[in-house]
Design goal:
The structure holds two protein chains of two kinds.
Chain A (H helix, E strand, L loop, with lengths): L1 E8 L8 E6 L2 E5 L25 H4 L2 E3 L5 H4 L2 H7 L6 E4 H21 L8 H9 L1 E4 L5 E2 L4 E7 L7 E7 L2 E5 L23 E6 L10 H16 L3 E5 L5 H16 L5 E3 L2 H12 L6 H7 L10 E3 L11 E5 L7 H10 L6 E5 L7 H6 L5 E3 L5 E3 L3 E5 L7 H11 L3 E7 L1 H15 L3 E2 L6 E5 L3 E6 L1 H8 L3 E5 L3 E5 L3 E8 L4 E4 L4 H5 L5 E11 L6 H15 L5 E4 L2 E4 L2 E6 L16 E8 L3 H14 L1
Chain B lengths: L1 E6 L9 E6 L2 E5 L3 E2 L13 H11 L2 H6 L17 E3 L13 E3 L9 H5 L7 E5 H25 L20 H8 L9 E2 L4 H9 L1 E4 L4 E4 L3 E7 L7 E7 L2 E6 L22 E4 L26 H11 L3 H22 L4 E3 L4 H17 L6 E4 L3 H7 L9 H8 L7 H6 L3 E4 L7 H4 L5 E3 L9 H9 L6 E5 L17 E5 L10 H8 L3 E5 H4 L11 E5 L4 E3 L8 E5 H5 L3 E3 L6 E13 L2 E5 L16 E2 L4 H10 L3 E6 L10 E7 L3 E5 L3 E5 L3 H14 L1 E2 L1
Parallel strand pairs in B: 3-6, 6-7, 7-9, 13-14, 14-21, 15-18, 15-19, 16-17, 16-18, 19-20, 21-22, 24-27
Antiparallel strand pairs in B: 1-2, 1-23, 2-3, 4-5, 5-8, 10-11, 11-12, 12-13, 25-26, 26-27, 28-33, 29-30, 30-31, 31-32
The chains are: A alpha/beta, B alpha/beta.
């Protein structure tokens, strides 16, 4: 049984996440994203690797989207509506609710503002979302007879899940993006111990190790406060969902505490609408937020107002959250054009900026001018502050999760090659787990767990559950329970295998038992020396001395150790007596089964020595 | 497996209660309260008119005693701090021996603090997250409403319920006695004093809330999963998988709901045992005369047919009927408002309340009527806010609403627009300022003994223009007694709260359980004999039903690593067989047996000598075999001592002496020479099949 892991996107890069895993013949696509930094055909995963004929319905069992970011869901409408995939698509409730917003926003930005040709239409998005089946956290869904999927809380953005998929005995987890620490509004990723053949993990921050986030929060607040106190305008380009809410909660709180009256604006109705969603999806936020929610919904921001285009040139300080993030296009870029030349102003860039965007240019070095996409140049004199909040886990988090899950193999995706390589070495050396960093288009194959199935008989199960106490009596009494399941596996052609107890084998085979035993009538003492009962006692003491760890049962003129049975022989002539020693005297007629072969001889030897 | 039905319950508010014995674990299913029973208590404050009524009656004490079946008066009701009636039979079970508690809907939680406050209680409690939340709110509401009695009667000094003392007197009406003492007269022990907020808190701490269709595993053995039953938000049916097969517990269910997530068929299909615990049909007088109009599922139940059957369960007729009922309630309320009367609605079912709120506000908005809607309950605000945050437990249409950015239930907007007013209590400071009559009021409690409904009813009962909307079954009993004479219009509604009896055969043919456990009282009403595919067992209240196992032998998964180490033995006579000795550690994980390499793995297990043999030994063959090993022996024929058995003896002479005794039953090697003995054994082992 095997697992094949084909990387269609986010292999040794960040963007267009798309991994197709074949588990025991079932193909599952995890995420279907687009690359925000590419304008050409590289924007989408190369679906042709999946099927030459384009019959994706036959190839794929299902698609699972982990969260609503464009690099995880961006290519979905293209894949379903243009490429024609019609099979089931799973995502969490928040992802299902928020993905169309993100897709529509992105489409509008691309088409309306950048004047690109339309890749998918609003109808495409709507039709695509109709095919989506929503899932709840930990809900176990049987996609078909063999394929079982389950989502775990990933913490990265609202509704983000890590996905567990199981076919037969083989199981994998695809993490999507995740965060191992709680933030202002979301909890940390949470998963249970699972038996996994493969873990596919993101590795955005494969080498970064972050300390506490409080100094970073303070730094951000101080930067913004300083800017508005100096009469400047602070621009925070961010996507509508996620960072915007977290930073806004932070600012709103700070404004309350410091009694600041400077307005905080949200650029588009989208973010206002997004806040509305957050209010309803409260069960997906952190425990802290959930508890507060009964009295006050933390997404009811007190100081936040809607932004109007005319306010760009209005005098006086303000804080503006503008979409999209990374300053890749649209309104945030337009505002940036106007505000960047003033040294009073501030641009705070939260999160990661993909290579090729203006955001990325601002973060890498201190440019004085920046080329915009349409060729115009902008002087950058404003302050640039990088908000080092990331909803991604750091290297420690990746290691912790890997160690916790202890999968048989690890595949890293969604990261930058050099740091992924060093993380790979770390996982291989420290955790001793084989780790792979495949590039786009590559396939990694693994063998997977299989169990052999058999039915078990009641006698066997009962024998397994009865304790097998061993007493050892060295200095102190030690009692151990060495319980081992001891049975016989019976396999018949074209039938299900059976596990039975050894006593049942012949019955199953329709045969008669044939017991093989040993017997010997052993001389014990000379003629008529002592009483019989004393003799048995005497013998049993001797046996206990030499043969350790045995339990001897005495009764009358018998003694029994395991299957070994000795009886004082009253016959004059016993067939079990050897010819030579058949003289007068006391004999112990012994009989034992092959199972206790060695034990029997040991006892015989003790008796012989005693003679 | 054993099932004991502790109580068949009584309607939506009092779900049934069972103890299930499965794989050695005791599982309690639901722990409800009989809230209808508190109608024996007199509401506070006692109305003046009511006391007049009773004093009038008291003038004729002679008549009172003589006439046994006289009409009851409000004075007959118990004037004391109410106690609450729990499931009687549950008290007969040792609490510490319960391993698991499964709750199937919010009404099934209400009695749980009585159980968890017992120091011996150590069971694991599972319920859906929505049930936990709603159940907790309902309990808190109950406690807060009960506070009024505490305030009125003062603290009770002894733990002995003084109110019980005089109830066995002759003049006490039979109806009252029946509620207090039960049919068989031994219900007294089931009355309990209400728990406190702390009790609720510590009870809820012990609960493990599960998500929709989340699999939880108890003790590695039982894997449990909650699937929506459609009855109410958060209400579920349970699926339990164990090593001995699968079991489903079907509680009161609704196939198509307009608020909660509809009945989930898929997970319940093809189980080994199905416990049908929907007693709701007992509430209606409906009888299925011609029994089984069972769809014919004789031979080829194709996939399509299966779908058709399921579709017939999901027909919308039933749910349309429910919508009509709701619309009727709304129109009645509007009518009274038009005439200047107020409406009091005391319904418990949250789904119904939410739908009514939505419908009423919509219909009021479209009409010219300016009537305010009040919701008076200590938990109303939290409850209404909560219901808009659980898409996974709502029906499709409401899920769609949330996904397109609208609240799932329409009340949010109306609250904002001040069309719906929420107040925690009738004495809330702002209530009086916004109060305006006529109005429409939603207020608990449906028993008409607790909460704001009591005061409002006392206020409006003389007004023939006003309307009281009640749950079914209340007016026939003691419910309205303290408020008589009553001039208000009364609308008694019975909403669907379970599976219609005539749909049971279809349900069974869709789910195809191998065995069905049906309550005998339900079985009496419907003829299920024609359903061929299932075997039907009947259970009755307070009797234990033993259900024999269906799957003969449980499955074991053997680790491939262990299996690869097995050494196989071929059998002489049977080529189709292979046998191998298996040694390892037997584990139980996720309800499945698993055999893994044990701690002391015997590497030499293949080389170990066989311990069990079968077949027979022909002495001549054995002699030949021995000869090859350099042992000489000769066969002696003799009959056994009793003469019946054919014993054959081989005398071994060289290299040392010995005897081999062989018969059909077995072979005995007789010698004092260890080496010879093992050699002879090897020779025998070569002739026989063994393991």
């Amino acid at each position: 049984m095997a697992i094949d892991c084909l990387i269609l996107g986010a292999g040794q890069e960040i963007g267009k996440s798309c991994v197709v895993v074949t588990i025991n013949g079932k193909k599952i696509m995890f995420d279907c994203g687009m690359h925000m930094g590419c304008d050409d055909h590289n924007r989408y995963p190369d679906f042709s690797l999946l099927s030459k004929t384009g019959d994706f319905d036959k190839e794929l069992s299902c698609i699972i989207i982990t969260h609503f970011h464009m690099d995880h869901v961006g290519a979905l409408p293209y894949f379903t509506e243009v490429c024609g995939y019609n099979g089931p698509i799973y995502m969490s409730y928040p992802t299902k609710a928020l993905s169309p917003l993100m897709l529509e926003d992105y489409r509008r930005v691309m088409v309306d503002r950048r004047g690109e040709e339309e890749l998918f239409t609003t109808t495409h998005i709507a039709n695509c979302m109709k095919k989506v089946i929503a899932l709840d956290l930990k809900q176990t869904i049987q996609v078909d007879q063999d394929l079982q999927i389950r989502g775990y809380y990933a913490g990265h953005v609202i509704g983000a899940v890590m996905v567990y998929a199981k076919v037969g005995d083989a199981a994998i987890v695809y993490t999507g993006d995740y965060n191992m620490t709680t933030d202002r509004h979301l909890g940390a990723a949470k998963i249970e111990r699972l038996q996994l053949d493969l873990l596919i993990s993101e590795s955005t921050y494969a080498t970064t190790i972050r300390g506490s986030k409080y100094p970073r929060e303070r730094e951000f607040l101080q930067a913004v406060h300083k800017c508005v106190a100096g009469g400047g305008k602070a621009l925070i380009p961010s996507f509508a969902l996620g960072r915007a809410q977290e930073l806004c909660m932070l600012l709103d709180d700070y404004w309350e505490r410091m009694n600041i009256k400077v307005p905080i604006y949200f650029s588009s109705g989208l973010t206002i609408q997004a806040n509305m969603y957050y209010k309803m999806l409260i069960s997906w936020t952190s425990q802290n937020v959930k508890e507060k929610h009964a009295t006050h919904n933390p997404f009811d921001f007190k100081n936040v107002k809607d932004f109007d285009r005319s306010l760009i040139h209005a005098p006086g300080p303000c804080v503006l959250f503008a979409t999209p993030g990374m300053l890749c296009a649209g309104f945030s870029l337009e505002v940036f054009k106007h505000w960047a030349p003033s040294p009073l102003n501030l641009v705070a860039l939260p999160g990661y900026s993909v290579a090729g965007t203006v955001g990325h240019k601002l973060m890498s070095g201190k440019p004085t001018t920046v080329d915009l996409y349409n060729g115009t140049k902008v002087d950058v004199r404003c302050k640039i502050h990088q908000v080092a909040f990331s909803p991604h886990t750091d290297a420690k988090g990746i290691m912790d999760l890997t160690k916790f899950l202890s999968p048989k193999n690890v595949v890293l995706v969604h990261g930058e090659k050099p740091s992924m390589m060093s993380l790979k070495d770390k996982i291989t050396s420290e955790l001793n787990i084989p780790c792979f960093v495949p590039a786009n288009g590559e396939t990694v194959s693994f063998t997977s767990t299989t169990f052999i199935k058999a039915t078990a008989s009641d006698t066997f199960l009962k024998s397994c559950s009865s304790p097998n106490f061993k007493f050892s009596n060295s200095t102190q009494l030690h009692v151990t329970d060495q319980r081992t399941a001891d049975g016989v596996l019976v396999v018949e052609k074209n039938k299900k295998s059976k596990i039975v107890h050894q006593d049942e084998v012949s019955e199953v085979l329709n045969e008669k038992n044939h017991e093989v035993s040993l017997a010997y009538c052993c001389p014990v003492k000379g003629k008529g020396e002592s009483e019989d009962v004393d003799l048995i006692k005497e013998l049993s003491e001797k046996i206990t001395e030499t043969v350790s760890g045995t339990q001897i049962h005495e009764s009358g003129n018998c003694l029994q150790v395991g299957s070994f049975k000795g009886t004082l022989c009253l016959k004059d002539k016993c067939v079990h007596r050897s010819e030579i020693s058949s003289s007068e005297g006391v004999f112990l007629c012994c009989n034992w089964s092959v199972a206790d072969l060695e034990l029997g001889w040991k006892i015989i030897n003790v008796i012989k020595q005693n003679l | 497996m054993k099932l004991t039905c502790l109580s068949k319950g009584d309607g939506f508010q009092y779900p049934p209660c069972h103890i299930l014995n499965l794989c050695g674990f005791r599982i309690l299913i639901d722990c409800p309260l009989d809230l209808l029973a508190i109608t024996i208590f007199s509401p506070v404050p006692c109305d003046v008119e009511a006391s007049e009524y009773s004093s009038l009656d008291a003038q004729n004490p002679v008549q009172k005693k003589q006439k046994l079946e006289r009409e009851m008066t409000p004075a007959d009701l118990v004037c004391a701090e109410p106690w609450y009636k729990t499931v009687k039979a549950l008290h007969l079970w040792e609490v510490s021996l319960i391993d698991v508690v499964l709750i199937s809907n919010p009404m099934g939680v209400l009695g749980l603090p009585f159980l968890t406050q017992n120091p011996g209680f150590c069971a694991k409690i599972y319920m859906t997250e929505a049930t936990a939340k709603i159940g907790q709110l309902m309990m808190e509401d109950l406690v807060s409403m009960h506070m009024e009695f505490r305030g009125f009667y003062g603290p009770e000094d002894s733990s002995f319920p003084g109110w019980m003392k005089n109830l066995d007197r002759e003049e006490v009406p039979a109806l009252l006695k029946k509620v207090v003492f039960g049919e068989s007269g031994d219900d007294l022990g089931s009355w309990m004093r209400l728990y406190s907020l702390d009790d609720i808190k510590s009870c809820m701490k012990k609960v493990q809330a599960v998500n929709y269709a989340e699999e939880v595993c108890y003790n590695g053995t039982l894997v449990m999963k909650a699937l929506s039953s459609g009855l109410d938000i958060g209400a579920c049916n349970w699926l339990i998988n164990g090593p001995h097969g699968s079991l489903s517990y079907v509680s009161d269910s609704i196939f198509v709901s307009h608020h909660a997530k509809s009945f989930d068929f898929h997970g319940l299909k093809g189980n080994d045992v199905m416990i049908y615990s929907d007693f709701s049909c007992l509430q209606s007088t409906e009888l299925t005369e011609n029994g089984c109009n069972s769809p014919d599922t004789a031979t080829n139940s194709s996939e399509k047919k299966d779908e058709n059957l399921a579709a017939s369960l999901l027909d919308t007729e039933e749910s349309l009927e429910e919508l009509e009922k709701l619309a009727f309630v709304c129109s009645c309320a509007a009518e009274s408002a038009d005439a200047g009367g107020s409406t009091l609605i005391t319904i418990t079912q949250i789904g119904i309340v939410l739908q009514l709120l939505e419908l009423m506000s919509n219909s009021l908005e479209s009409s010219s009527l300016k009537v305010p809607i009040f919701v008076i309950s200590s938990v109303a605000e939290e409850l209404l806010a909560y219901t808009n945050t659980i898409p996974e437990w709502l029906c499709k249409q409401r899920q769609e609403k949330l996904i397109s950015g609208e609240p799932s239930f329409g009340h949010l907007k109306f609250i904002k627009d001040k069309k719906i007013h929420l107040f925690p209590a009738i004495h809330s400071p702002n209530l009086i300022t916004s109060w305006q009559e006529p109005c429409i009021v939603f207020a608990p409690h449906s028993s008409l003994r607790l909460g704001p409904s009591v005061q409002l009813l006392q206020r409006w009962r003389g007004d023939p223009k006003s309307l009281l909307v009640l749950e079914d079954g209340l007016s026939s009993g003691l419910g309205l007694l303290p408020f008589r004479p009553i001039a208000m219009k009364i609308l008694q509604c019975s909403f669907l709260s379970g599976i219609r009896l005539q749909k049971l055969p279809t349900l069974l043919s869709v789910l195809q359980p191998k065995r069905v456990l049906v309550p005998d009282v339900v079985n009496q009403r419907i003829n299920l004999t024609e359903i061929k595919t299932n075997s039907i067992l009947k259970y009755s209240e307070n009797k234990t039903l033993r259900v024999p196992r269906i799957t003969a032998n449980p499955d074991v998964e053997i680790m491939a690593e262990l299996a690869s180490k097995l050494s196989w033995r071929k059998l002489r006579q049977r080529e189709n067989f292979g046998i191998a000795r298996l040694k390892g550690e037997l584990l139980m994980k996720d309800g499945k047996y698993r055999l893994v390499s044990g701690l002391e793995q015997e590497e030499s297990s293949g080389k170990a000598r066989p311990l069990r043999h079968w077949g027979s030994v022909a002495p001549e063959t054995l002699v030949d075999a021995l000869l090859k090993m350099g042992i000489t022996g000769s066969v002696e024929h003799s009959t056994g001592e009793d003469g019946s058995e054919d014993n054959r003896i081989i005398h071994v002479t060289n290299p040392s002496s010995g005897l081999i005794e062989t018969s059909e039953m077995g072979t005995t090697i007789i010698t004092d020479d260890e080496n010879i003995a093992s050699q002879i054994f090897q020779a025998i082992d070569g002739i026989l099949d063994g393991i």
